[in-house]
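FAQ

Q: What does a record look like?
A: Structure on top, sequence underneath. For example:
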């Protein structure tokens, strides 16, 4: 079976999502199904059909999250021999060499990536360029036919 690397925070987020669906969302939907069932003929009962559909969506989501959990292998920074090289789990600070803006990203699995939290997928174009690089290396990222040059100013790992 193929494993995917995931951070400890990523595992915790998966477990929270599963817990919320199982302990909050599903019970709410089951109550709605029960209530809408009392409205009469189920063939023409729109509330019942919608609630059943929502229930199936949540069930599918739980199965998907549990599958991801089953193939996940937690990444531990202590297992990295050379913490001066960018790898999965790295938190990387980059300076844009054109405008001197600084960006910070953590390289995570595709299942926990969230650009609003500066977590980028290991499969993203930027991550693919960064993997294996070191502090002070300069990278070129092509976006919309424009080259953006970045300098790596720091690399570290969360424990």
């Amino acid at each position: 079976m193929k494993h995917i690397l995931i951070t400890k925070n990523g595992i915790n987020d998966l477990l929270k999502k599963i817990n919320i669906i199982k302990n909050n969302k599903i019970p709410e939907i089951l109550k709605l199904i029960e209530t809408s069932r009392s409205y009469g003929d189920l063939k023409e009962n729109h509330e019942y059909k919608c609630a059943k559909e929502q229930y199936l969506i949540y069930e599918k989501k739980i199965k998907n999250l549990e599958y991801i959990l089953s193939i996940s292998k937690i990444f531990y920074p202590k297992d990295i021999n050379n913490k001066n090289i960018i790898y999965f789990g790295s938190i990387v600070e980059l300076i844009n060499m054109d405008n001197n803006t600084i960006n910070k990203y953590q390289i995570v699995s595709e299942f926990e990536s969230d650009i609003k939290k500066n977590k980028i997928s290991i499969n993203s174009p930027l991550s693919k360029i960064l993997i294996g690089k070191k502090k002070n290396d300069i990278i070129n990222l092509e976006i919309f036919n424009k080259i953006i040059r970045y300098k790596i100013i720091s690399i570290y790992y969360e424990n």
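Q: Is there anything notable about this one?
A: The chain has two domains: 4-74, 77-157.
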